[in-house]
Amino acid sequence: FTPQPHVQPETKKRKGGSKEDSTTAKKKKSASDPVTLNAPAKYVEILHLKEGMLMLACVKEVADFDVVMSLPCGLLGFLQIKNISDGYTKLLSEQLRSQGTEEISSLDRVFRPGMLVRCVVLKLDITKGGALSIKLSINPKLLNKALRPGTLRPGMTLSGCVESVEDHGYLVDIGVGETKAFLPRQVLRAGQTITCRVDEVKGSGRVVRLSVNPLALARTFADASHDWSLTSLQPGLLVKAKVKTVTKHGLLLSFLSFSGQVDFLHMEPEEESTYTVGQEVQACVLYIEPVTRLVALSLRRHLLAPGSLVDLAPAGGDRIGEVVDGCRVTSMHNMSGALLELPDQTRAFVHKNHLKETAQTSALDKLLSLPELSCRILNFSAMEQVHFASLRKVLSGGPHSSLSVTVLPQGTVSELLDHGMMVQLSGNLKGLVPKTHLSDIVLRNPEKKYSAGMKIKCRVLSVEVDKRRVTLTRKKALLTSTLPVVSSYAAARPGLVAHGFVVSIQSFGCIVRFYNEVKGLVPLRELSTEPLASPEEVFYVGQVVKVKVLECEPEKERLLLSFKAVVEGDTAGEGTAAPRVLMEVGQARLVTKSAVCLEVAILPEEVPALLPTMHLSDHVSNCALLWEALEEGDVISNLVCLSRNKESITLTQKPLVRWGLEEGLFVKGFSDLAVGMTLVGWIKKLMPYGVFVEFPCGIMGLAPKSALCDRFVTDTASVYQLGQTVVAMVTTFDEEKQRFLVTLKGSEVTDPEGGAQALLLRGLRERRSAEEVLAGRGSGARQELLELTVGQKLTLAVEEAPEGGGATFKSDELTGVAIAASKPHVLGVTLTPGQKVTAVVLQVDLLSARVHVSVLPKLLAKKKSVSVFCRCVRRTALCLRAPECA
After folding, report:
1. CATH number attached to the domain at 323-395
2. Which residues form the S1 motif domain (predicted)?
């Protein structure tokens, strides 16, 4: 769903209207003023976009020559391969000219779906259909054009592109002329786009040293010392801001020396009513309008973690095209739209153009008084993590998800293209008839048979709901076929005879495709009863053929087919391929790593696979430490295969999940579920109304807020963390809607192997092992930190003790280590710079080389007995198993 250009309807002023309404109406009369909300916060639309505008975007789809970007407020933009960077363009040109075997740096090696990217609006074009197309660029020279060598400061975060590989690292193009940017050795590729942090500036900005540590980036905020200006301010920057104004439509914030706005879609839903004037918040710069000089900010958590991947689909599954009854309007924003609450308590946004029919002029405020509404889900906006919906009846045509290969829809020819024909199926639903499917034979002049406006009947060949793509056929043999439809590999049983069409002719045989991209091979020996030397002389691409399935391997997506067996009438027995076992324990070698995922090669066959960072441990706090301890070439043990598809294999190292698989506490499909079944999974997504729990094989269930723990929960984020391993029990399931509920209450689920205490001890041993590896590979400071223990007493010198705050210390024995005590741990103790004090160690952070201490007399007293300590450990273990104890 891409919002289309539209004409703003006239709005008559109501009698007795409020002063706010009157002011808004006056503003709308001015042609020079952009369309804004009737409150400070502003909602961006296509009409507000200007060339040169900087925006934060999310990678939605990666094709061969362009990338589809999800922009704020449901907009879509397109990044062409030539607009990435000068270095990437040069690299591609060199690879294409060379005769070597070096692998081409394709876009899918540079971009990953869900990746956050800083971009600039390069051009606004009108498509043939009249829609506005947004062309983007991420070239550092355009993104950072306002920066000069003298304006670069340590601590800045910038976008760049890996320009070349050097002996000890990389040269990075950050788009600042006369500046050489160096990145010490990482696991990167030439041409790769990165978000990096400036660690050091030399020679008046002519040489800078960069880093890409995701943990450091997540803790880096824009600072007044960076001297950001409104023209150099970058989308994606993290800032600390203060609330100046609160309205029902959003917030007005102040940060650095600027003012910024947060619209209602970029506040956390469960915190909307909690914001107060003067409150300090962490925000992310969303976009900067160059004309109005507006800075838009976001408070959404998924945008405040640089390096993480944004979910491109809701946790409850794809619902695009679904008609939802029983919705209600929760808030009206007259200049932008309305927020709906769906029956399952999820939110949906309805743009003002989709609140009513085009010709309808009734007051939109009446929608608030309606007890129930029906809406159709149009899209899911990754940037806002909210569905976009419509109340218009004109969009009652069938959605993509309602189409299947058994449907023969009636359509209208809308356009003839070089590669096929576009057919309008319903209000907002179009399909493509490829050129080879316009007829049973290939038409040289399709315009002689088809013309715009002609009514035709088609058959659906494939539906790609995530890409909103429908492929159709006009081949009569397929339209009238009475043979079984092969729409999945599981449906292709040996012995089955079906119609398909030839898509490729090779020296070893023909490739035949069925429906939903299912395809198989007819080897040379099965093409005919007579030997064929040249298959291309007998068959042609697009030809409809009748084939028989000889062998089928659904898990490998392989089919062996025969033309000969159909002619001979062979009736070989039917059968099904045995399903492969899900669990495969083994080792893998680390190939490369990013903030959210490790790319590994399963040994000994070197099969590529993915190991998500959150799957390194059952304990979320250990994952970052284990990630940092691993290096390229390391062998990772105790891995289990979670799921596999034709694109990738996903592994896990979570001991509890591995135990669940070994004990059979998993299901391979929805049909295997039963009430009372115990499953081991992990937290996939936190929502105001509960948490979504993912299980092996990609199955996902919802734990409502009432079933999270044995005490009342107000905020799900205070109880669970993303990636946390949990034991769940199935309570209810809906077979028709393919949805089920689980409980995580400690009183209702079975304890894992060894109980909570064993889980805690395993986590502590895991953490200690990772710390030892990290210290061995790191600096001397880390080795010194490893020798420290919680409860150990240190003699320190006070470095700073600001009034009303905490204190920092220094030690001759711990060099390069930051030692600090927070305000509660210096309360009532008088400290002066240079004073010698005794402090007790509270926590040692090996990653940041930081020690947290306390100088409170009660903590410096004699340690408690062993029995008391054991009770504390037991209590901590229970807290890990049952969050309600927290």
Report:
1. 2.40.50.140
2. 52-139, 236-300, 321-392, 406-475, 495-564, 676-745
